[in-house]
Amino acid sequence: MPNGPHSESVVFTFNQFERDNSEAVSVNVFTAVSPPNLMYEDICNLAMNRSTSFIILPFHRRWYVDGTIETEDDNVRRLNLDILEKAPCSVGILVEGRRNLRSTNLRGTSSSPSSNNSSTFNIAVIILGGRDDWEAIALGDNDQTFDNKMLRPIRETVDLTYVEEQVNDGPETSSFLRSVVENYQLIIVGRRYNSEDPLTSGLREWCEFQELGVIGDLLSSTDIIGNYSLLIVQQQQLWPG
Q1: Residue 123 exposed, middle or buried by CB count within 10 Å (0-12, 13-18, 19+)
Q2: Residue 60 has what DSSP assignment?
Q3: For 159-170, how does the pLDDT look when each residue is reduced to its tens digit (9 = 90+)?
Q4: What share of the chain is helix, strand, coil (3-state, %, to 5)?
Q5: The whole model's pTM is what?
Q6: Helix axis angle, 213-220 relative to 170-180, nearest 10°?
Q7: Is 232 exposed, middle or buried (0-12, 13-18, 19+ CB in 10 A)?
Q8: Are 123 and 184 in contact (CB under 8 A)?
Q9: Quick check: 187 and 228 in contact, CB under 8 A?
C-alpha cells in the first residue's frame, strides 16, 4: 500500500470497522518497501503465511464523478496481473463506484450519491456458468463469507431474489446487464469464461482489460451508466503437484 493520505484513510477505515465489529473482525496492518516489479512477492508470501482465503486489489484506474479518468497507474495494473497469475488464494479486483454519474432521474435532473439517502444496499451476483462463478456465489453467501455474530442483524433484514434471464449471445447478455445495473450498489462477477461460450460471444473483441474478464470489463466501461462498485473474482488456482 503506498504511503500518503489515501493509505492512511484506508487504514483508519479498517481500524474503525474492527472497533465496530470487535467480536467478529481483527485488523492487522502490514507495511513493506519493495520495487514495483517485486511487490507481488510480498503480497503472495504474506497471503501464504497467513493462510489467506481472499485478496482484494484496487483497480489501476480511478474516475472523477463525471466519468472522466482521474488517475491511471500502470504499476498497479502490472501488480494486479502478477497476483492473479501467482496468488496462493482467490483474488478479487475492486473497481470503485462513482465512475459515471450521467444518469438522470424522472425529472431529468442529474443524480449523485449525496442525494441518495436510502438505507438499502443492493448487491447483484452475475452467474453465467464461468469457472469463477462459484467463487462469486460464495462471496454473496453470508453464511460462507463472514462471521455469524456480525451478520445476524443483516440476515434479519436481507431480501434475497433469484432472477433467471434467457439470453442467446453476447449482445443479448450486454443488453440485459445494461438494463439492470442501475438497481445495485455492488455487482460481483467471475473473471474467467470459456472463450467459446455463446453468452459472451462478440464481447471478447471489445475487452480492454483482461484482468477484469469479459463481463467485468463490460460493466466497468463508462459507456454503461450507473453508480455501482464492481468486484471481479478469480477462484484459487490449483497448481499440479
Answers
A1: middle
A2: S
A3: 778 888 888 888
A4: 40, 15, 45
A5: 0.77
A6: 50
A7: buried
A8: yes
A9: yes
